[in-house]
Amino acid sequence: MAESLSLSMIVEEAKKKFYRGRMVTTLITLLLAFAIGSETAVILPTAWKYLQTLGSRDETDLGVLVSAFNVATLISSIFFGWLVDRWMHLCKRVMFIGALAQVVGSAMYFLGIHKWFVISGRFICGFGSGTLTVILAELARATSNEERAKFFTLSFSVHQLGIILGPAYNLALHDVNSWFGYIQVNEESLPGLVFAIFWSLAMVVILVAYENIGEQYIALQKLIAAAKEYEIVRYGTFLRSPSDDARDLAEHSTPNSMMNQKDSKAKSIDSVHSSTPSEKKVRNENAPYYRLEDSEEAASWMDLLIDTIVVILFMQTTLFFCQCLVETIIPPTMQTYYGLGTQANSFFYLLIGCEAIMSYGFVIVMENRLLDRTLILMGNSLVVIALISLMITTRFQESHPHQAFPFFMVSCSLVFLGVPMSSVSSLTLGSKLVRPNSQGKMQALRRVGNSVGLILGPLWAGAMVYDHLILYGVTLALFLIQFSVLMLSYSRMVPNE
User: Fold this and answer.
1) Residues 395, 412: Cα–Cα separation, whole Å
2) Of 52, 78, 253, 406, which shows the fewest CB atoms inside 10 Å?
């Protein structure tokens, strides 16, 4: 009885330590996600002017700068995802290396020796931002199915908040113009210095307080499993119902340090392995917990390409394709048809950014009331309605601009309500359909899908911005295809328990 009580105390202490560590690590990752979102929003508005001061006269250089960041992010996301799946204990080191890359890239951007030096700095920053894949993979490993949507939504929300608040930093830096030795410090170069300092501090925080919470989660699963086996063999019965035990196992995790304490009970637990054949048979038939050892090997890239995952990845591409398309057509449409300029655009972007955060909040509130696939369906329906409304509105915006303007705003707003809802819900569902030791690859594939949409959306919008029927018609057709494959796989989009 004393041994059982002592083992139970070890498990409870492990849970407490894990939850404390997970809270601290989650706060760190949310801060980093906010910084990555802010960095993009701060640098992009002034990047072209900065390149011009360095001798650039070709707008292609701005495209190269933006593309360099995105390409590096894509490469590092795949590499980091594969790395943390294969060697899970390297997550902290990968986060540290990512922060170091951000420091180097931001410092290069600040120095601004030559336009290619600045572009190279953004490429290195993009490599560092690939740690978002590690963040999401770790959150997926360290949370239960019930709480995962909340953690993912918080991560997306703070990233979006960083994008919204980014332009406010430019207002604060607007009047800065001085010299630091031979280096000019102004509105264009100062963001590099600010983020170099931030990421330097982030490196210290990661080194001191960041923990590999995904690995700790798996350690506690094994500890709880061993404790339950010991109780089953010792008493020959369950103290609680199997469903309660399974739920408890799914919702908890532990630090690796507690595994050392578990080893101190080896003699007691060894009795499990030396039990009689009849006891083993009862244990194997009735044990109510998931055995991690049954799936130690991480899935290969091809193993992840099952129909439900492919649908989710395709959905990520179409969602971000549509979002970037609408973001791109807003300025020329507002100027050409409604006579509005940059200030109106800024307020409109602020409005739709706030709507995106509201959509994330809705997901958090409804996560325990609605299934992930239901939220996905709702978000996709809003986007389809918005695209149809935009097609109709554009038929009247030349002849009746004042009457068409409210419908244009509402249609764009529906897109930014539906896309966040579907994207975060599909991300949550995808993480539930793969094993814990394949989360890095899953997040890397998701990032690939996002990047394709982020690249193709603006290109399509820029080419067809004034050919409305083709612009929205093709996008709507793409969404209807996605909607169809979603319905075909809808019944199989059930999380693994």
Assistant:
1) 16
2) 406
Name the residue with tokens 């971000």: 320
Distances (CA, A) of 141 to 7, 17, 228, 254, 436: 25, 17, 22, 12, 5
Selection from 159, 162, 161 nearest residue 139 by Cα:
159
Residue 272 has pLDDT above 60, yes or no: no
What is the distance of C-alpha 367 from the center of its chain? 17
Residues 185 and 220 in one domain: no
Is 6 within a domain? no
- Do 323 and 279 lie in one domain? The reply is no
User: Where is 490: in which H helix or E strand?
Assistant: none
Question: Does residue 175 share a domain with residue 222?
Answer: no
Domains: count for the chain: 3
Give, to the nearest 10 degrees, the angle between helix 2-53 and helix 213-235.
160
Range of the structural domain that residue 156 is part of: 11-212
Do 250 and 265 share a structural domain?
yes
Sign, CA torsion 137/143/149/150: negative
Amino acid at position 209, single letter: A
Same domain, 269 and 336: no
Q: What is the pLDDT at residue 234? A: 59
Question: pTM value?
Answer: 0.68
Do 85 and 439 meet the contact criterion of CB atoms below 8 Å apart? yes
Please report the pLDDT score of residue 241 as a whole number. 42
Percent of the chain with pLDDT over 70: 81
Residue 115 domain flag: yes
* CATH number of the domain residue 195 falls in: 1.20.1250.20
By CB atoms closer than 10 A (0-12, 13-18, 19+), residue 288 is middle
Listed residue (192, 213, 310) closest to 255, CA to CA? 213
Nearest in space to 429 (alpha carbons), one of 140, 156, 214, 159: 140
Q: What does the pLDDT average to over 370-390?
A: 93
Residues 316 and 206 in one domain: no
Tens-place pLDDT, residues 206-252: 999 998 888 888 787 777 777 777 666 555 544 444 444 444 444 44
- Pair of tokens at residue 174: 């607007």
Q: Is residue 120 part of a domain?
A: yes
Shared domain check, 192 and 61: yes
Q: Buried (b) or exposed (e) across 208-229, using 16+ Cβ within 10 A?
A: eebbbbbbbbbbbbebbbbbbb
Short-list 329, 341, 345, 340, CA closest to 470: 329
Backbone angles phi, psi at 295, to 5 degrees: -145, 55
pLDDT at 168 over 80: no
Instruction: Give the pLDDT of residue 248.
Output: 45
